[in-house]
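Lab manual, section 2.4: Encoding a predicted structure.

Procedure: take the sequence of the chain (189 residues), apply the prediction step described in section 2.3, and record the output as structure tokens. A sample record is shown.
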Amino acid sequence: MPRSPDRGFTFVELMVVLTILSFAFAYAVIHLDGATGPARLSSSAREVGSAVEFLRGHAIQSSRPLELHVDIDKGEWRCVMPPRPSESEVERSGEEEVLVTDPVALPKWIRFEGIQLDSQEVRSSGTLVITFSPLGEVTPNGFMIRLVSEEIADEAEARFSIEVNGLTGEVSYLPGQAPFDQVVRGDSF
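Recorded output:
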């Protein structure tokens, strides 16, 4: 006998659908939890470190200096391609303009704690300009960028350090607050 269109769902059918939906919801909540806190902090650190690695490599490849401007107060950075130095005023008139990318901001609950330049000097405000030469040199020569998350309660997990080696330009990612004495500075050799 055909089913009439006025007839609804049975109680058992509704319970099966609700059970399937509750399992799907529980699965989604468990797997989305990794997208918060420590995972977001680690991802932000890798994004900043990738910008450093990219600009250093691009400066070498393009044979021109590049800069990374880190605004510690605003929690953002941008890439800058300054004009090439020119020998005369005539060449300066035809010189290319400065290229500046749009600022890239850290996520809402993450901020720059500071940039450590040596064992004594830590910049915790203002803008720091990191320069990449066509020879692969990075200025300042060896530094550590520190990020902190305000959404993580555990102090040790709430910090992440990005180390830039002064000799090789290699970027290392270190969970927690790594000591500055492990940064290799190119001027120390």
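Check your result against the sample. The domain at 33-188 is CATH 3.55.40.10 (minor pseudopilin epsh fold).
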